[in-house]
Design a protein that fits this description.
409 residues; 19% strand; Rossmann fold; elongated; Argininosuccinate synthetase, chain A, domain 2; five-stranded parallel β-sheet
């Protein structure tokens, strides 16, 4: 969109964080489109006070300002369903940024309907995945919505251009601990990502003292292990150390436990959907604990076939979430299968948290498929070892036929 379409926008709902980029976008939308701007700021547990976003929006003449606490919805309806799939993108990334985008997009479209807006806008750059995630979400929720993506339209091509534009328009520019422009960060209750600056060279070691905000490094974690239990019901965690917690409070508690024990920091290079590789440092303390303990719960409650089928689906599911297809019918179809498989995943898992490690020490469930009488090395039990001979011969039949025809390799 652009050019002669610019005059056609009457009202736009902007996904507004109150940070530098979206504050610049707010001003740019007013100047470029001459339209009314409605701001929407979602509290997904990023750990920042959101009232300053309201004040900034008011200062810039915004009349309709939405600031909403969506933490419980985020964890219950997005994070937990994704964790039922044990989703990891490229074997390492827990999709912390990816999973927040469909919720923001859905709520933005709802607000657009409420206020009679004909367009929505976001602050994602033209080089990243988030533009795809936001816009696929917008179109899935409203096929006819108009979308303004400033990074693909304007001529502010560098961080320096942005800062100059901000200073010209009296928009405050934040600084990091060393008085420099900060890393590009995204935060919510599941994770914090850091990209840019020194991290753009994949050989540079991250300065964790400067980057980490939710956790300590394993070296700085306590020298004594901390033991915890998680209770699960139908695949979702419901209590920590026997205390029942709401989804958002439970994840926040796991973040606290993981953070102080140096758990959940990864430094990865990933393949973006748009085609380039990017390097980032991700802090996911609570999610890292949850994934390890969920799999331990599944290990005794899931049938082998169901568990393996889930694991085969997982990379495809993770890629769909990463690429922005949360609302796609195939993701919903896979979710139905995953949710069905998760029904017996109930019980308790015990683990020790120690210097970056989640060490599973026990698991129990009323639905356990683990049968001590079958697996025991002691005499007796329900398993007749002689049965294994026929089982092996049948499985070897095709191998033996192959060897007779083609000889030994």
């Amino acid at each position: 969109m652009g050019g002669d379409n610019k005059t056609k926008i009457k009202k736009v709902v902007l996904a507004y964080s109150g940070g530098l980029d979206t504050s610049i976008i707010l001003k740019w939308l007013q100047e470029t489109y001459g339209c009314e701007v409605v701001t929407f700021t979602a509290d997904l547990g990023q750990g920042e006070e959101l009232e300053p976003a309201r004040k900034k929006a008011e200062m810039m003449g915004i009349k309709e300002i939405y600031i909403e606490d969506l933490r419980e919805t985020f964890v219950k309806d997005y994070v937990f369903p994704m964790f039922r799939a044990n989703a990891l993108y490229e074997g390492t990334y827990m999709l912390g940024t990816s999973i927040a985008r469909p919720l923001i997009a859905k709520r933005q479209i709802e607000i657009a309907r409420e206020v009679g807006a004909d367009a929505v806008s976001h602050g994602a750059t033209g080089k990243g995945n988030d533009q795809v995630r936001f816009e696929l979400g917008y179109y899935a929720c409203n096929p006819d919505i108009k979308i303004i993506a400033p990074w693909r339209e304007w001529d502010l091509i560098s961080r320096t251009d942005l800062i100059n534009y901000a200073e010209k328009n009296q928009i405050p520019v934040p600084k990091d601990k060393r008085g420099e422009a900060p890393f590009s960060q995204d935060a919510n209750l599941l994770h914090i990502s850091s990209e840019g600056k020194i991290l753009e060279d994949p050989w540079n070691e991250p300065d964790f003292d400067l980057i980490l905000s939710r956790m300590v490094t394993p070296e700085n974690a306590p020298d004594k292990a901390e033991e915890i239990t998680i209770d699960f019901a139908a695949g979702d965690p419901v209590a920590i150390n026997g205390k029942k917690l709401s989804p958002a409070n439970l994840l926040a508690k796991l973040n606290e436990l993981g953070g102080r024990n140096g758990i959940g920091c990864i430094d990865i290079v990933e393949n973006r959907f748009v085609g380039m590789k990017s390097r980032g440092v991700y802090e996911t303390p609570g999610g890292t604990i949850l994934l390890a303990m969920r799999r331990a719960m599944e290990s005794i409650t899931l049938d082998r076939g169901a568990a393996h089928a889930k694991d085969e689906m997982m990379p495809r599911y993770a890629e769909m979430v990463y690429n922005g297809f949360w609302f796609a019918p195939e993701r919903e179809m896979m979710q139905a299968a995953i949710d069905k498989a998760s029904m017996p995943v109930s019980g308790t898992v015990r683990a020790k948290l120690y210097k970056g490690n989640v060490i599973i020490t026990g698991r129990k469930s009323p639905n356990s498929l683990y049968d001590e009488a079958t697996v025991t090395f002691e005499e007796g039990g329900t398993y007749d070892q002689k049965d294994a001979g026929g089982f092996i011969k049948l499985n070897a039949l095709r191998l033996r036929m192959n060897a007779k025809i083609h000889g030994n390799k």
